Amino acid sequence: MEGNIIIQVKNLCKNFGSLHVLNDISAEFKEKQVVSIIGPSGGGKSTFLRCLNLLEMPTSGHVIFNGTDLCSKNVDINKERQKIGMVFQHFNLFNNMNVMKNLTVAPKRINGKSQEEAEEMAITFLKRMGLEDKVSSYPSQLSGGQKQRIAIVRSLMMEPDLMLFDEPTSALDPEMIGEVLDVIKQLALDGMTMLIVTHEMRFAREVSDRILFLDGGRIDEDRSADEFFDDPHSPRLISFLQKVL
Amino acid sequence: MGFFEQIIVIIQRYYPYFLDGVKNTLIIAAMSVVLGVVFGTLMAVMRMCRIKPLRWLATAYIEFIRGTPLMVQLMFIFYGLPMVGIEFPDVSFIPNFSRFMAGIVAMSMNSCAYVAEVIRSGIQAVDEGQMEAARSIGFKYGESMRLVILPQAIKNILPALGNEFVTVIKESSIVSVIGISDLMYGTSGVIALTYRSLPCLAIAACMYFILTFLSSRLIALLEKRMKHGR
Ligand SMILES: Nc1ncnc2c1ncn2[C@@H]1O[C@H](COP(=O)(O)OP(=O)(O)OP(=O)(O)O)[C@@H](O)[C@H]1O
Ligand SMILES: [Mg+2]
């Protein structure tokens, strides 16, 4: 699938004090591509993802999103983040707002959508997920799977160009993992550009165009999904796959 | 005369002393908490801000106040302020206004440090993920605070502020040592007149207890209201 480069990472390094978490990472991600990131715990997957929307400030290097270098001083990062959706392991729905408010607060305040417009959009998304009866529920009244699907909708409400997922199913009970993965698969079919950190190997293989193996702060393997599993090169990936498969 | 009869007689004869004391104790506690909240909020903001010297200053203040006895702080203000040229005028309609003010200043400076900690820990108790989610969706720091963090933090902060008010009511008994006519001062007065210390102290204890009990009930009621209104 040929497309424009939507986000380009150049020589990205991130240190926490003396701890080198990301060591000189370079990579490109194209429009409509679905890329999964796999690797051992502590390998820097979350940090990498969080550097892409500058939740973590890179120590050095560049993150170029739609042609804008997010690391340069005069960038309005708040504006850029509106186009980069992020879904967290622990959902992070706004606990003080009900579902409708969670979904509409940003489109209204940031994109200037009218109340009706935003609500209509929210209802459409919720119906598609079969969650329309939850509009006035608070996050504490939802199951994990419901929370995560609402969190995904919250990102979609901003009509992002790119979605980042950091282990979206790791905090879920097994019986709820499927419903969230199905939503992500549907997004892939709809042509959403996505970067997904996950431990769900079968899902990764199924949904991804490409998979990265991130270990020790480096991209150790960067292959198409099938090659990644059937013909891995990196010795570390080979032993990792032996352990998890 | 038995103990309880003594109490009844003392109340009958000297109740204005106690009532006046209660009034002043409440005034001091309320003023101190209000000022404490105003300045405590400022102090909490300083404590959490990005400018290092301000942060350092606030931390030092909070640690120092929390690490020294209120009695010493009170004396320091009472004797110290006039020495550096700050004197509160005597106002005719409030007797002992200058003493009163010294008491309130000391109590609020003290309360301010505790309130600052209450606010800071209330904010920091909100899950970090809330701020991250707000920022990642495109809200500025201030908007994220206002829309997401503070509404959640306030639920942690208000009950603790209520406790602070109760604490201040009790601690304020100390201002009697600089001659402010609070409940404790009134009690000492009655003791001096009657030579009956135990009954007088029992009356004072009951009155303090009624004040703190009523306040904490009232606060619990408010909390309940808040929960229903989310
Ligand atoms: N804010 C931080 N301060 C200090 N060290 C951090 C911070 N965030 C992450 N680290 C460290 O950076 C390393 C990489 O963390 P990261 O969360 O990116 O790993 P990960 O690949 O996402 O792991 P997991 O699969 O467990 O989520 C870890 O050693 C972690 O302890
Ligand atoms: Mg992680």
Walk me through this protein's architecture.
- The complex is a heterodimer of chains A (245) and B (230).
- Chain A is 37% helix and 26% strand.
- Chain A is α/β, with parallel strands linked by helices and 245 residues long.
- Chain A has two domains: 1-83 and 161-245, 3-Layer(aba) Sandwich (Rossmann fold), CATH 3.40.50; 85-159, no CATH class.
- In chain A, the strands form two sheets. In chain A, strands 6-7-8-3-9-10 form a six-stranded mixed sheet, sandwiched between helices. In chain A, strands 2-1-4-5 form a four-stranded antiparallel sheet, with helices on one face.
- In chain A, β9 and β10 form a beta hairpin.
- Chain A is globular, with a radius of gyration of 18 Å.
- The two termini of chain A are 28 Å apart.
- The mean pLDDT of chain A is 95.
- The A-B interface holds A 53, 55, 78-79, 81-82, 84-86, 88, 90-97, 105-106, 109-110, 138, 151, 154-155, 158 and B 127, 129-130, 132-140, 143, 147-148, 151-152, 230.
Topology diagram in text:
The complex is a heterodimer of chains A (245) and B (230).
Chain A (H helix, E strand, L loop, with lengths): L4 E12 L2 E12 L3 E5 L6 H8 L7 E6 L2 E2 L7 H5 L2 E4 L11 H11 L5 H15 L14 H13 L5 E5 L7 H16 L4 E4 L3 H7 L2 E6 L2 E7 H6 L4 H10 L1
Chain B lengths: L2 H46 L3 H15 L3 H14 L13 H28 L3 H10 L3 H31 L11 H12 L2 H32 L2
Helix pairs in contact in B: 1-2, 1-4, 1-6, 1-7, 1-8, 2-4, 3-4, 4-6, 5-6, 6-8, 7-8
Bound molecules: adenosine-5'-triphosphate (ATP) and magnesium ion (MG).
The number of strands of chain A is 10
Fraction of helical residues of chain B: over 70%
Q: Report the sheet-strand fraction of chain A.
A: 25-35%
Helix content class of chain A? 25-40%
Q: Give the H and E element order of chain A.
A: EEEHEEHEHHHEHEHEEHH
N to C succession of SSEs of chain B: HHHHHHHH
**Would you report the number of β strands of chain B?**
0
Average pLDDT, all residues of chain B = 91
Q: Supply the number of helical segments of chain A.
A: 9
Cα-atom radius of gyration of chain B: 21 Å
**Strand proportion of chain B:** under 5%
